[in-house]
Amino acid sequence: MKKLKNLFLVLITLLALNVRAQDQTQAEKLSEVNDKVNGLLERVATDEADLQKLAKIKVSGYIQAQYQNFETPTLLSKSQNYFSLRRVRVKFTYEAADGVKFVLQPDFAPGNLSLKDAYVVVNEHWKKTFSLWAGKFNRPNYEVEYSSSQRELTERSLVIRTLYPGERAIGAKLEYNPLTVPIHFQLAVLNGADGIAINNNAGVNINAADNIDYDNSKDIMARVTYNLPLGSFGGLDFGAHGYFGSLKSMATTTYSSDYSTVKTANIGDKIGKNWIGGEFQLFADVLGGLSVKGEYIAGKNASIGYASTTAIPLGVANFQNNFAGYYLYLIKNLGKKNQFAFRYDYYDPNTDISGKDIMNPSNVKGYAATANLAKKMSSKSDLATSTFGFAFHHYFDDNIRITACYEIVQNEKVGTTAGVSNYTENYTQNDGQVVLKGLDYSKVVPQNVFTLRVQAKF
Amino acid sequence: MKKLNVLKSAIIAVLLGVVCFAFTAAPERITVKGSDTLVILAQKWAEVYMKTNTGVSIQVTGGGSGVGISALINGATDIANASRKMKNTEKDKLKARYNTLGVEVACAKDGITIYLNAASKVKELSIAQLGKIFRGEITNWKEVGGDDQSIKLYGRENSSGTYVFFQENVVQGDYASSCQTLPGTAAVVNAVKKDTYGIGYGGAAYAEGIAICKVKKDDNSPAFAATAETIKTGQYPITRYLYMYLRNRPAGEMKKYIDWILSAEGQKLVVDMGYFPVK
């Protein structure tokens, strides 16, 4: 009996030891699992931190593929209708910290790989009203800053395309956007020669690599806009912008806009280019959404000639032309999926010369009407152009927009009165045959364009 | 040539006239998308309204204020719910796409509530302390009267209007990188419920099973909890309106629905669901 009791005690002891050992094993396992969970949590935290860094990079972009038919009889070596990729853009935005943003936007259009935007924006932290931009960015103007992916007509107005070639410029910009007043102010200091061709006497564009400035003078651009709410009717945005700059003279003479004076210039002189413009955008919540937008710009532009090193050919004078241009849009939404847009735009590159005076020898006031000089006196480049544009957009879904656009382009006509030569040009047909005096600027020269465009945006 | 110009002008005038007077009838199916703070109230409104207006279908989803406003801009929803005001950049997109400035309807008020775990010793915090906590400058509860334990931050994703409002009005800087972002207010409440040393923020209507932290405007001000009274009087310092945004002035069924939401019946549901009425 005693033996049995001892055996029982031994068994109980062994069992207790076993249970304790099992408890210890379970505690170890629990500790191991706990360590693993903690390890996983640490990894998740690290991954989340990495993910947050990646979330600071935003990638967007759009592609515009289009078919165009040009009614002009001559497009030199190009065909009159073709498919093309107008835009192939990817935009990278990196928000390095609160208020600091980097933007990089290349355009991958075939044969035209270029850097469109490359800038940094720093917002001040205290009032959150000022921001400083540096790099290559859109010039401060309504139509320039209005993205091509949103624009209601397929191209910007002629006056804007002429004044701001390529839209972007390299420089620095200060923006002021107070939180309590709906005013928006931009002041930019720019190199000023971006996208402008300045040929030397060999016909080579010396401003082709426009990463650095062509001269020492910097151009100033300012724009101010105000958003006026109009209650339940909608709102009116209005404002003004101005451009104040110059280009360095490469010629020894400068023609005035009306060709009545020739000023002597030194190489290196500043040839001024200054203009101002007024703009408005009226948004009306009537019949599903309608807007009317317009802008008028006038001033003096400049182009740079060159001094000849030989007597023949003669050099080309600098030219300062008084110009005026405007555009007017009417845009109407047709439900959620469709939109109609109409635009009339007008650009007169020389307000001091009317069509009837183009190539008119009597307009040459006191100058020797040598053949070369007379040809420089006036030309088709002084003719005004007006364009009626109609566009219909269908938004297939969030990302895809299909656009049909027709633009009726009309040139100012040269005079046909007695004693005035009509202004004509030869052109070459697709088959290579030269049509003498085929383009007659005493009539409307066919320049209408039809565009069918598909835009994919992401 | 002159006749042709007259004909062209007439065609242009007729075309413009037809286009200008074209408009779309208001839909009988209304889609609502946006703020997660508002979603339970919006669902309740839709549910009750559809019971008495059987011909109307109202579909409500969340996703966050930013998601709702983006959907409004790209035409994917008729109403965007938002717990913050529409940004200027969003208004510009609406202008560009629809040529309107949008219509803002304030439909309820909310106090952004600070959620603490039920076991937390901390009962009140000032706006400045909350800012420091969520910026990661205060990292231990003992610095604000609690245990000597690390503070665990829970917040919303950056598409949330609450995230933006809280950042602009309380955090006033970057959120701490340690702040765990969660996909909805309910998730924030659940996380704080389970974490003794957690703190989160969100709409008052979601505050169940957690402790509500009283908030002081500054160190010298008394602390208030978000209640109908303190929100109405403006004593609770983190108060905001909740909005519905539309592309155009409402018409037809949409107008009837909006009018009903702002009526006594609609605003009673606001209170029933734990929010605060606009009037």
Write a structural description:
The complex is a heterodimer of chains A (458) and B (279). With 458 residues, chain A is an alpha+beta fold. Chain A has helices spanning 2-55, 142-145, 158-163, 371-377; strands spanning 57-70, 81-97, 100-107, 114-123, 130-138, 168-176, 183-190, 219-229, 234-248, 253-255, 262-264, 270-284, 290-303, 318-334, 338-348, 385-395, 400-411, 424-428, 434-440, 449-457. A 16-stranded antiparallel beta barrel of chain A has the order 1-2-3-4-5-6-7-8-9-12-13-14-15-16-17-20. In chain A, strands 18-19 form a two-stranded antiparallel ribbon. In chain A, strand 8 (219-229) and strand 9 form a beta hairpin. The model of chain A is unreliable at 363-375 (pLDDT under 50). Chain B has two domains: 27-109 and 241-272, Periplasmic binding protein-like II (D-Maltodextrin-Binding Protein, domain 2, 3-Layer(aba) Sandwich), CATH 3.40.190; 113-237, D-Maltodextrin-Binding Protein, domain 2 (3-Layer(aba) Sandwich). Chain B contains ten helices and twelve strands. In chain B, the strands form two sheets. In chain B, strands 5, 6, 7, 8, 9, 10 and 11 form a seven-stranded mixed sheet that branches. In chain B, strands 2-1-3-12-4 form a five-stranded mixed sheet. In chain B, helix 3 (65-73) runs parallel beside helix 4. The longest helix of chain B has 19 residues, at 2-20. The model of chain B has no long low-confidence stretch (mean pLDDT 87). Chains A and B meet through helix 1, strand 12, strand 14 and strand 16 of A and helix 1 and helix 4 of B.
